[in-house]
Amino acid sequence: MEKLGAEPGEEAGCDDEEDAAKAMERAEAGKAGCSPGAPVPEEPGGLPWLVPEGGSSSRVIVHVDLDCFYAQVEMISNPELKGKPLGVQQKYLVVTCNYEARKLGVKKLMNVRDAKEKCPQLVLVNGEDLTRYREMSYKVTELLEEFSPVVERLGFDENFVDVTEMVEKRLQQLQSDDLSVLTVSGHVYNDQAVNLHDISHIRLLVGSQIAAEMREAMYHQLGVTGCAGVASNKLLAKLVSGVFKPNQQTVLLPESSQVLIQSLNHVKEMPGIGYKTTKRLEALGIRSVRDLQTFSSKILEKELGISVAQRIQKLSFGEDNSPVTPSGPPQSFSEEDSFKKCSSEVEAKNKIEELLASLLNRVCQDGRKPHTVRLIIRRFSSEHHWSRESRQCPIPSHVIQKLGTGNHDVMTPMVDILMKLFRNMVNVKMPFHLTLLSVCLCNLKALNTAKKGTIDYYLTSSLSTTSRSGKRSFVILLE
DNA sequence: TGGGGTTAT
DNA sequence: ATAACCC
Questions:
Q1: CA of A305 and C1' of B4: distance in angstroms?
Q2: Best CA proximity match to A175, nearest among A58, A50, A52, A28
């Protein structure tokens, strides 16, 4: 295994994994019998302290978080951008930027004007078309799925991988003379010493090695760098992945989990506690993680409902039993566009056609068929401006069938449907002012779900073809 | 505040 | 259909 720190992708000034490893060894040296080279009782066919804990529910989770993902993809597309401060722009926002730009004061989601003011040399590229980001994002997920099929996506740039089984397999392969491989990869959170007599430490350590292999594969096969966090659940893995920031990894040992969660300055920094819940917690006087830990469960349940209350209070202790749910292929495809103003039906129709055209290409590539279409709008309003309205309806089966082939046949009926949904939401006889339009194709099904033996089965399977004139021909196989 | 996504109710 | 959450 090559050292990640030697990779060209490692950012200058951040190569401190070596130091951390040495610090750990120093800490280890002080503890009798705990250093990697310490003698361990030998036994044929395995290691005595590696007894399988039957029914053990302890997991090893890796959280992988790509470094300033959109900016990375842009620098791969155009290598001349490397080394320059780069921002990715959507409308008048810099949604993300590389580390050169961050050093010069540019922040994520900064206004373009503020960013240019802070950093006049900032190079901006438009990132409103997500196609290349989406493609690279799925390549990363697919690469991780080769390690373990249990991969959950979170946005385009984060993945959780449950590597528990991989860890167990590696430990079963471990022989007494292989003990030198029991070294941690990357940082250990809180500089905690690894205890090789502690099975939970060993498992997480192996997890850190797998995480390093994942990052190495990502860099060599796809050219992307990222951070990783290794811990016993998703919450902790995610929190610890961000501790050493670009292109580094950190493992959390159980004894330091309280230090990690207490390092959060506010409950709003806890993944799973969003804007609304934060406001409600503040109204109860809850600001810090400790406040949430010690707050009355009964009162919290009455205020937030039992489900949210119990979940977030467990989160405040670093407890998270939510499984890594394999994402698989996407549940929906959507395209949206925001703008200052759309106030006529024709204008709306043109935007909708644009969004739909891109969507049809995407859905065609995917191969599955959407059975539902949805139209989403955002109305202009000076206050309370984050709510959206939507209308959805089934896609007629005759339209669904034409989806993979000629897309012009599909455009017209789909636009007709979408404009009906539009008029259902917007009274076009009255003045209106929209600031966003979005089209979503969802309820994706593998193929037609017609049951064998039914008329639909023979009409819709590959045995049936529909010509452009609308005449349908089919063959019936005698089975 | 963009242009996406997910699940729960 | 909306509301909450995530990036």
A1: 29
A2: A50
| Count of CB atoms situated within 10 Å of the CB of A434 | 21
The whole-angstrom separation of Cα A63 and Cα A162 is: 9
Strands (E) in A91-223, as ranges, are 93-97, 110-111, 123-126, 151-154, 158-162, 187-188
Nearest nucleic acid nucleotide to A272, CA to C1' distance: C5
Q: Given a cut of 50, is residue A46 above it in pLDDT? A: no
Q: How far apart are CA A457 and CA A463, in angstroms?
A: 9
pLDDT, one tens digit per residue, over A396-440 is: 999 999 887 777 889 999 999 999 999 999 999 999 999 999 999
Give the integer Cα–Cα distance in Å for A174 and A168.
10
pLDDT band (50, 70, 90) for residue A24: very low
Burial class, A263, CB count within 10 angstroms (exposed 0-12 / middle 13-18 / buried 19+)? middle
Residue type, A62: V
Local structure of residue A428 (DSSP, 8 states): T
Strands A369-379 and A187-188: unpaired
Phi-psi domain of A123 (left: phi exceeds 0; alpha: psi -120 through 50; beta: other): beta
CB A159 within 8 Å of CB A139: no
Complete edge-to-edge strand list for the sheet that includes strand A249-251: A151-154, A158-162, A61-66, A226-231, A249-251, A187-188
Q: Residue type for A349, please? A: K
**Catalytic one among A10, A74, A158, A335?**
A158
For residues A454 and A276, which has the higher predicted lDDT (pLDDT)?
Answer: A276
Burial of A467 (0-12, 13-18, 19+ CB in 10 A): exposed
Nucleotide lying nearest to A129, CA to C1' measure: B3
